[in-house]
Write a structure and sequence with these properties.
Elements: H1 4-17, E1 22-26, H2 34-42, H3 50-55, H4 62-65, E2 71-78, H5 88-96, E3 103-104, H6 113-132, E4 137-140, H7 148-154, E5 159-160, E6 166-167, E7 175-182, H8 201-205, E8 211-213, E9 216-217, H9 223-229, E10 245-247, H10 251-254, H11 281-285, H12 289-295, H13 305-323, H14 327-338, H15 346-357
Parallel strand pairs: 3-10
Antiparallel strand pairs: 1-2, 2-7, 4-7, 5-6, 8-9
Helix pairs in contact: 1-6, 13-14, 13-15
Bound molecules: cobalamin and iron/sulfur cluster (2 copies).
Length: 362
């Protein structure tokens, strides 16, 4: 017989020692989330993330994904780097307004979170086993068809914001989620109330209007999708709206009033890497492939590859070229772009040609 109260309090203690910010327990019945998931797929909002459609309802059925699962231990981990200033949202907005600088979203400036969370969830699961004896379990963080926000919300780690991410009164939304599917019947922790009220700041802040209605995100318009998940050509009409965002996007979270409570990570892993602390577009554009691989070792950015990195940079350089007031700056940007005009990848070449054309008045 498991002492549930003791296990839950142990989980919080172990979780904290491992760098997690909060632990909960979710039930496995997510059937009320299925219509939302199906509606999202039916609208084609997943774009070319084919795996989202392929896995279908498995995503909402933990016991189908891992037979025998009776409960899900949920975890969240704050990721603001330890040195983040108090007025961090202002600092990020300011960088977004300087077109020649590169904006990499906060979550991706340090070590790949998949690696950080996965290992620590495994350790947490082993500690549970030491207490309760052998059990069946699987640990995930964005690594399998799982509705992570839904599980986290149901287990009281926060509420779903209108931007679709999980939010917490004491921590905003700048945290990752992970979970351990277990074959133990644990008592779920209670869901919390939602606190978005009448606010719609995230919807108004989205540069590409990707949040088409509260809780409805068209990934095809989202800069995070366009710069990370999408392999091909970026739609022309969205390029000018991307500004200097070259990997992911934080605008809906920067606009969220709850993120003044966002917490720093207890781990050094999310501290910005060398080369990604305050990069300019031109400096990153000049990285050749070995340099790209060197600077992004152990980072999530590496997975997009050098060509997609250049594609994203070309769009941002084009936007900087359009904005640049001084002829000398325009010249430097044009010169940098021209140096890769013969690039082997036709997608990089097309985005580069588009970028060069931004120098001309329409
Ligand atoms: C695919 C994906 C993306 C896609 C799509 C995002 C999305 N909102 O669906 C893209 C590439 C755009 C993306 C971007 C980002 N992501 Co992401 N992403 C995921 C992933 C892998 C799956 C999410 C998912 O299942 N989407 C499918 C839809 C159906 O889910 P949903 O929006 O939650 O839909 C529910 C409701 O909104 C509602 N609903 C939706 N549409 C409709 C329509 C109707 C008619 C109705 C009635 C209801 C309804 O019902 C649905 C089911 O409950 C998760 C990890 C995971 N395995 O869960 C990470 C995850 C959600 N992402 C994360 C992060 C950090 C981001 C970014 C912030 C990264 C960045 N800085 O660039 C951005 C934020 C963009 C945003 N506002 O969502 C974190 C979020 C942590 C948190 N605090 O919540 C997660 C949990 C990864 C992790 N392990 O930490 N992501
Ligand atoms: S991440 Fe950026 S583009 Fe995507 S929904 Fe949020 S604000 Fe819009
Ligand atoms: S910006 Fe406002 S509506 Fe959007 S998630 Fe935050 S509180 Fe909710």
């Amino acid at each position: 017989m498991i002492d549930q109260t003791r296990l839950l309090s142990q989980l919080q203690t172990w979780g904290q020692q491992l760098g997690f910010s909060q632990i909960g327990v979710a039930p496995v019945d997510l059937s009320t989330a299925e219509p939302g998931l199906l509606a999202w797929l039916a609208e084609g909002f997943h774009g070319d993330m084919g795996y989202m459609a392929r896995h279908g309802l498995t995503r909402a059925r933990p016991a189908t994904l891992v037979p025998g699962t009776l409960s899900v231990i949920t975890a969240r981990m704050n990721y603001l780097p330890s040195g983040t200033p108090q007025d961090w949202q202002t600092v990020e907005w300011a960088r977004l307004s300087r077109p020649q600088e590169a904006q990499v979203s906060v979550y991706a400036r340090g070590r790949d979170y998949h690696k950080v969370l996965r290992q620590r969830l495994e350790k947490l699961a082993q500690q549970v086993q030491n207490l309760v004896g052998p059990m069946g379990y699987r640990a995930f963080t964005d690594s399998a068809p799982v509705l992570e926000v839904e599980l986290a919300q149901r287990s009281g780690l926060g509420w779903r914001g209108k931007h679709t991410l999980l939010l917490n009164r004491d921590a905003g939304s700048m945290f990752f989620l992970g979970e351990i599917f277990v074959n133990l019947a644990l008592t779920p922790t209670e869901a919390t109330e939602a606190h978005c009220g009448n606010c719609t700041a995230c919807l108004s802040a989205c540069p590409t209007l990707a949040i088409v209605a509260p809780y409805k995100l068209d990934a095809r318009r989202c800069i995070s999708y366009l710069t990370i998940e999408h392999e091909g050509t970026i739609p022309h009409e969205l390029r000018p709206l991307m500004g200097n965002r070259i990997y992911g996007c934080d605008d809906c979270q920067l606009a969220c009033p709850w993120n003044k409570y966002a917490q720093r990570s207890a781990l050094p892993d999310f501290d910005p890497r060398e080369g990604l602390k305050a990069p300019t577009l031109i400096a990153l554009w000049h990285w050749d492939e070995p340099q790209f691989l060197h600077y992004t070792e152990g980072s999530a950015i590496r997975r997009i590859g050098h060509d997609r990195w250049l594609r994203n940079l070309a769009v941002a350089l084009g936007n900087a070229l359009r904005e640049a007031p001084e002829p000398a700056v325009k010249k430097a940007l044009r010169h940098a772009l021209a140096q890769r005009a013969g690039h082997a990848n036709p997608i990089v070449r097309e985005h580069l040609q588009w970028a060069l054309a931004q120098a001309e008045p329409a």
